[in-house]
C-alpha cells in the first residue's frame, strides 16, 4: 500500500540561475532558427538544432550541430555559402550572438561580472552529422525516425488544477511571483537580483497536500548591506501570495538566504550549462525521468517531443477521470519511427485496465516523431518561454506554446477504453 501521510520536497530555480540562463539561450536559438526558416521558405520539419550553451564570468560559449536556412549561413565575397573542410556549410554567428544577448538582457543581467552588452560570446555551431541525418530524415518508404534512443516519462496528478504535483508547482510559483515583482522595477523586490532558488516541503495527509513545513529561498540581492532578515522581510509577502491560504502555519520553518549574503550571482558566481535542471523542468522528483534534457533541441529529438507527448497523454488520462494519478513511459530507438514500448502506471487509482489503456493511447495519438510534431504543432518558435519555471503545468498559449498542456483528448480516450 502506498503511504498516505508524508513529507515531499521539490525545488525550482529562477530564469537567472546560471543553468537556466543557458537553457534560455539554447531555446532562443531554437526559436531563431524556426523564425528564419519560415522567412526563408524552408520546410520547418527539416530544421535540426542540438544547441548547448556554457556560461561563466562574462563569457558564453554556444556549441552544437544544426541544419538551418541559408539566411543563417556564412557567405563569401561572391555571395556563395562557405563550407568547412568536411563540406558542411559554415554558420554565420551574428544572429546567434544577438539572440544570446537579447536573452541575457531580458533576464536582467547588467553586472560587472556578467553583462548582456559586454560578455564575450563564441558560436561553435556546425552542420548536423550526416550519420545522424540519414537515420532521422524521411526517405523512400522510411518515415522520419527518432533523433536518438531513450526513454521518456509523462506524469499527471490531481493535486493541483494544472494536474501537476503540488511541491514543484508551488516552488515554481514562488519564483515566478518574485520575478514579476523584481522586473516591475518598483516596490521592495526591485533590489533583488535575477539569480534565485526555491524549495518547498509539502505535508500530505490522506494522500492530499495540506500545507508546507519548510520553505527555502536563496535570492541574489543588489544591495550588499541587506541581511538575511532584511531579505525575508522583502520576500515573505510574495511567498505567502504564491502559496494557498492556510498552507503556512506558525510551525512552518523558513530558510531565507541561509548563507547570509548573496550578491555575486548568475554565471559570474557559478558556471552554467544547458540541460542540468531536468528535474526542475519536469515533476520535481515526484515522477521518473528518462535522463534527457529539453532545451536547445528541435522536436525531432524525442528527449523533448516524446516527453511532451507523454505528459499530454498522462494529463488527458487524469482529466478524463480515468485515474487520479498517471505515469506513462515511451521508448524509442534512433532512426526508428514507432515507439518500442508504451507503459502505463495508474498507481492504484485507475478506473480502467492499464493494459487496455496502453493500447488506447496508441490509437488516439500517432506517437512517431512526425506524429507528435504534427499533433502538438511543435515546428514553431515556441520554446524560449519553456526554459524557466517548468515545461509542464503551464497554460497553452495562442501562439501554440505549451500545446501539450491541452486536455482535448478526453473524449477520444473515453471512447477508446469503452
Automatic annotation (TrEMBL):
The S-adenosylmethionine synthetase N-terminal domain, residue ranges: 6-130
EC number: 2.5.1.6
The keyword Magnesium is assigned to this record: yes
Keyword Iron: no
Location of the S-adenosylmethionine synthetase C-terminal domain: 264-406
Xref: InterPro entries: ADOMET_SYNTHASE_CS, S-AdoMet_synt_C, S-AdoMet_synt_central, S-AdoMet_synt_N, S-AdoMet_synthetase, S-AdoMet_synthetase_sfam
Enzyme class: transferase
Entry keyword set: ATP-binding, Magnesium, Metal-binding, Nucleotide-binding, One-carbon metabolism, Potassium, Transferase
One Pfam family here: S-AdoMet_synt_N
Domain S-adenosylmethionine synthetase central: 144-262
GO CC annotation, single: cytoplasm
Highest taxon, organism lineage: Bacteria
Main location: cytoplasm
Compartments (UniProt record): Cytoplasm
Gene3D superfamilies (alphabetical): 3.30.300.10
Cofactor: K(+); Mg(2+)
Membership in a protein family: Belongs to the AdoMet synthase family.
Assembly description: Homotetramer.
Annotated protein name in UniProt: Methionine adenosyltransferase
Source organism: Devosia equisanguinis
Gene: metK
Amino acid at each position: 500500500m502506498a503511504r498516505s501521510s508524508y513529507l515531499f520536497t521539490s525545488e525550482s530555480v529562477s530564469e537567472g540561475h546560471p543553468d537556466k540562463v543557458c537553457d534560455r539561450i539554447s531555446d532562443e536559438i531554437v526559436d531563431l532558427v524556426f523564425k528564419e526558416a519560415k522567412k526563408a521558405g524552408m520546410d520547418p520539419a527539416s530544421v535540426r538544432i542540438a544547441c548547448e550553451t556554457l556560461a561563466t564570468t562574462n563569457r558564453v560559449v554556444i556549441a552544437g550541430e544544426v541544419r538551418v536556412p541559408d539566411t543563417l549561413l556564412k557567405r563569401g565575397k561572391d555571395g556563395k555559402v562557405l563550407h568547412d573542410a568536411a563540406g558542411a556549410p559554415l554558420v554565420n554567428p551574428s544572429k546567434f550572438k544577438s539572440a544570446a544577448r537579447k536573452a541575457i538582457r531580458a533576464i536582467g543581467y547588467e553586472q560587472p561580472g556578467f553583462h548582456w552588452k559586454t560578455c564575450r560570446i563564441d558560436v561553435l555551431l556546425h552542420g548536423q552529422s550526416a550519420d545522424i541525418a540519414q537515420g532521422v530524415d524521411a526517405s523512400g518508404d522510411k518515415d522520419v525516425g527518432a533523433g536518438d534512443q531513450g526513454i521518456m516519462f509523462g506524469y499527471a496528478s490531481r493535486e493541483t488544477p494544472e494536474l501537476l504535483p503540488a511541491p514543484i508547482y508551488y516552488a515554481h510559483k514562488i519564483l515566478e511571483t518574485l520575478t514579476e515583482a523584481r522586473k516591475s522595477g518598483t516596490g521592495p523586490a526591485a533590489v533583488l537580483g535575477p539569480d534565485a532558488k526555491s524549495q518547498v516541503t509539502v505535508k500530505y495527509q490522506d494522500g492530499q497536500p495540506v500545507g508546507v513545513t519548510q520553505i527555502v529561498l536563496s535570492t541574489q540581492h543588489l544591495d550588499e548591506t541587506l541581511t538575511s532578515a532584511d531579505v525575508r522581510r522583502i520576500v515573505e509577502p510574495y511567498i505567502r501570495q504564491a502559496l494557498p491560504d492556510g498552507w503556512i502555519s506558525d510551525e512552518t520553518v523558513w530558510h531565507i538566504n541561509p548563507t547570509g549574503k548573496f550578491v555575486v550571482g548568475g554565471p559570474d558566481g557559478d558556471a552554467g550549462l544547458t540541460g542540468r535542471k531536468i528535474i526542475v523542468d519536469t515533476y520535481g522528483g515526484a515522477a521518473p525521468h528518462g535522463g534527457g534534457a529539453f532545451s536547445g533541441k528541435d522536436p525531432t529529438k524525442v528527449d523533448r517531443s516524446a516527453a511532451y507527448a507523454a505528459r499530454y497523454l498522462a494529463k488527458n488520462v487524469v482529466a478524463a477521470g480515468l485515474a487520479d494519478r498517471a505515469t506513462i513511459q515511451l521508448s524509442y530507438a534512433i532512426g526508428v519511427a514507432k515507439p518500442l514500448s508504451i507503459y502505463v502506471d495508474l498507481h492504484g487509482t485507475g478506473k480502467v485496465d492499464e493494459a487496455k489503456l496502453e493500447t488506447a493511447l496508441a490509437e488516439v495519438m500517432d506517437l512517431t516523431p512526425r506524429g507528435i510534431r504534427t499533433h502538438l504543432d511543435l515546428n514553431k518558435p515556441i520554446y524560449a518561454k519553456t526554459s524557466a519555471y517548468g515545461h509542464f503545468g503551464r497554460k497553452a498559449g495562442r501562439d501554440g506554446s505549451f500545446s501539450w498542456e491541452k486536455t482535448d483528448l478526453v473524449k477520444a480516450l473515453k471512447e477508446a477504453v469503452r
